[in-house]
Amino acid sequence: GLEGGAKNQFSTFSNFITTINQKKEGIGNRNSPTQLVIPNIKTVRDLPPICLDVRQKQRMSIETLPQELKAPFPPEPSLPVRTKTVKDFQDDMEKSKASGDWKAVHYFYSTTFDSFLEINAAFKKDTSSPFNTVEDSGIDAQFVDVVYDALLNTPQDVQKSVLKGIINGLLQEWTGPRTKDDLRAYCILLQNPQFSNTSTYVIYAHLLRQIAALTEADHHFLVHWSKKISQRRFKQVVDRLLQFISLRLFPAKPEEFPPMVKCSWWIPSATKVLALFNAANSLISPPIISYTDFYNSTLDHIDLMEEYHNWQCYGNSHRFSFCQYPFIISIAAKKVIIQRDSEQQMISIARQSLVDKVSRRQKPDMNMLFLNVKVRRTHLVSDSLDELARKRADLKKKLKVTFVGEAGLDMGGLTKEWFLLLIRQIFHPDYGMFTYHKDSHCHWFSSFKCDNYSEFRLVGALMGLAVYNSITLDIRFPPCCYKKLLSPPIVPCDHNTLVGICDVTLDDLFQIMPELAHGLNELLSYEGNVEEDFYSTFQVFQEEFGVIKSYDLKPNGDKIPVTNQNRKEYVQLYVDFLLNKSIYKQFAAFYYGFHSVCASYALLLLRPEEVEILVCGSPELDMSALQRSTHYEGYQKTDPTIRYFWDVVLGFSLDLQKKLLHFATGSDRVPVGGMADLNFKISKSEASTNWLPVAHTCFNQLCLPPYKNKKELKQKLIIGISNAEGFGLE
After folding, report:
1. Is 698 a catalytic residue?
2. Model confidence over 675-705: pLDDT tens digits?
3. Which domains are assigned to the chain?
């Protein structure tokens, strides 16, 4: 029980409360509540529904209310007067450490955390001000940080007094709506570092349950107040919530926690509170922490497809699924969901084709189970366009590629080669579909008008096929492209609905056309007379095939001057024109091409950045990581040939390293799971050392003759990887 030290502070919530009552009976307490008992889990009000109905076809988000809430605020009770400052507290701590007498510190902690009113009295910047707005929580963040940073360095009885006070506050009977002082107390208590200890998890769970059950208006305040927390403290709270979820799913010592059947609300409560912090993080640009800091890798080890199917099947019900909160699912886990969902769709489509064939009394053919693409290298784009257009009904079958005149069998390698060559040709500047911007090193859609946008649909279908068949592509689109690709993530039933249109900002333009964006930013910050000095109107000009064309950004834009008052509107309309309106038909065709292959509710789980990673993989090559994860056949990693190989490869330039990766795997990109996911293998070739290395790209396998020295190996390897196009059979 209580005397067992930090690891055994509280075996159960009720044992702790019983001990508190016994001590109170002995010494008395002026603030003793009338009843200190653990609520019966069966009688506590269930949490509100926290499920995203997939039928609504929209991404999970925390709805934020208008900045000014019209509902009247509950009256704030008067707070006790507490005058202790940060300096006073630090002096008390120093004296206690020096003398060993912790009475003053113990009194401060036990008093401060005894109730929500006392928490506000201690940490509210001005107890006479209401602080009823989302802009300012009124919390003295510096004082909170100092008090919490010192807490874990105090004696056990001081730490126990804090937890005892928290229990007092949590067990208070609430009448009517929560006050802003209550919300302030919740915001402060969430930052308590004691909740990193599993012995406090029962108390922590009840705190999270109360916060999760607050009204939407209260959540609105907590979201905006949370974004003002320091980065260090914010990250600590997020990590603490993730650890709580992980240890409840896979407890190291199950006996430390109540049975799962009695606390099934723990994980939903913690996840909903985590969603508030994710919403707060997304309101800041740049965000407080990376979106990847919300990933919980523990979820990679649960039955993800069951989670996914629960989310799909039960819709807006009381059944919890992590898919309702996709920010917590790692990109590796999302890739698994998308791959398995794709495989199930492939099997379903292939089975239907087989049934149709048999029902017509026709002989089944194995080729009918695949999307077979047959192309000539000399007519790669036109042949591919024709094949995909003719076989649109087969796009969701497993892809197999054949190059006319070559004997290669496609076990995955030819598919990678087809993607690589096709993308290289389509994105060539001479082709005219995309414009390469040297300043940003990315491609963007050409705004030239044409009669047929089918080739843009082909590029979209290629990207869809790549995700569907788990192939990474060397495409350099800006992040804005993937944001547009998820607008909306599910193709609307009404074909008149606009697609690929999203809110765009000057930051989006900076990622594509930094020079133009810089100029527009200068316009916004110009201190002179914009109308007289710039002499611009709400009309822009673009060159198309040597002809200058004008476009009005709004009706009669050519007659509306840009002024100091309307320049923000001008910049926003200009950015929207460049990234949305001027390329609408091109991008709409691209959008429909992608979703013709990748239509899946799994896309609702993805952020734009995650779509980019799934499509392109990672451009960062870590050859040391590849060395650590490589398997060997016929060789040992200590053999001279293998040592020569890695000495040479680790000394290669980035360009040669990419060529090696392309030679051995068919792609120079790293998959979502990193180099380890390549399952790279080096096999011993019995061929003469006069031969060049050979690769089986289907299996990410390099066959290496036992070269006698490093110089010979380097020479043969560079020749091999620099002249690698085409396939044959051994």
Report:
1. yes
2. 877 889 999 988 888 899 998 877 888 999 9
3. 86-294 (no CATH), 338-486 (3.90.1750.10), 623-723 (3.30.2410.10)
